[in-house]
Design goal:
The chain has 316 residues and is of the alpha/beta class. The protein has eight helices and 16 strands. The strands form three sheets. Strands 3, 5, 6, 7, 8, 15 and 16 form a seven-stranded mixed sheet that branches. It has a six-stranded parallel sheet with strand order 11-10-9-12-13-14.
């Protein structure tokens, strides 16, 4: 099969495209022929060697994709041949074929376009987890999202808006600012302009996937407010003195999606909750940018450039 792979950690120049052995399946696995493969910031960290990656010779990046079931293990009853499924937590996804544990496969709803599902898989389940497991905001509350026009930010903003929150945020360009406003945000600030001083203590919850903005996020929180910290897309967070949080009754919440997406039942329940927003027309996302798998280097470069306003997909 064809795959995007690398032998050594480094920049995009280490990525190679070519033929490697196809995966085998056991009795509890299915073989998925990929149609769309999701690209994420975590894949950049794995390529650099600064984030966990499964051992394989050569290394194959990627943990999420959508495709068709082309082979089934003897003990698999949940899915059938030719079913369309997606997964968000299975390694070696940057390839034409992926061996997937059957409990990790999530069926694609028949009334949703495959490209939409592929565009929102991991980011959508992350946004759902942030909103419903960590944020738990009450209708009418004021929330702020850093990177509101990114893959997670777009979906999170629309989930919160649909659930009755007043959503504010920050982004990098006027085009992304307009995108977020069109998706229901009350007000969106450009990161290149001074805005945070006048908003200190104004928000019940701040969603921070940037990392280096953590201190700023805490300053935006009301007393008894909280910061939901979920990533480091802009760099490592500064060290925080817990005594400063104590005297203002502020808190930092964080978590790992994989501690919640931990069974077939949880995957089904959470994906159905997420997709219900799309089926009711409450969420729309930017058209994904699609690169051939053979042009994987260009796709990684584009993600690192910060120019994308939505999902980047690889297509075998």
């Amino acid at each position: 099969m064809k795959a995007l792979y690398f032998n050594d950690f480094g920049d995009n120049s280490v990525l190679k495209y070519g033929d490697i052995n196809s995966p085998q399946i056991n009795a509890n696995q299915i073989l998925v022929k990929t149609q769309f493969i999701g690209l994420n910031f975590a894949d950049i960290y794995r390529r650099r060697g600064t984030y966990h990656i499964e051992k394989h010779q050569p290394y194959i990046n990627g943990y999420e994709a959508l495709g068709e079931v082309v082979a089934i293990g003897n003990h698999v009853n949940e899915v059938k041949l030719k079913d369309k499924v997606f997964f968000v937590d299975v390694p070696f996804a940057n390839a034409e074929y992926v061996s997937v544990p059957s409990e990790n496969a999530i069926r694609v709803p028949e009334n949703l376009d495959s490209k939409v599902v592929a565009s929102v898989g991991l980011q959508g389940l992350t946004a759902d987890f942030l909103a419903h497991d960590l944020g738990k905001n009450m209708p009418g509350g004021n929330v702020f999202i850093h990177g509101i026009s990114g893959g997670v930010g777009q979906i999170l903003s629309q989930i919160l808006t649909s659930d009755g929150m007043n959503v504010y945020g920050s982004t990098s360009t006027s085009a992304k600012q307009n995108l977020a406003l069109n998706q229901g945000a009350v007000k969106v600030f450009l990161r290149t302009t001074p805005w945070s001083q006048s908003l200190q203590g104004k928000f019940d919850t701040i969603y921070d996937g940037v990392g280096k903005t953590l201190e700023q996020s805490l300053s935006l929180a009301t007393n008894k407010g909280k910061v939901v910290f979920y990533g480091m897309a802009g760099g490592n967070p500064p060290k925080i003195d817990p005594l400063k949080l104590l005297v203002q009754s502020k808190s930092i919440l964080t978590g790992d999606l994989w501690d919640y997406l931990n069974s077939a039942d949880e995957r089904k329940k959470r994906s159905q909750r997420l997709f219900s927003y799309f089926q009711k027309g409450k969420i729309r996302v930017s058209e994904p940018t699609i690169f051939p798998l053979s042009e994987g280097q260009k796709a990684y470069e584009y993600l690192e450039s910060g120019k994308s306003a939505g999902k980047i997909l690889l297509r075998p």
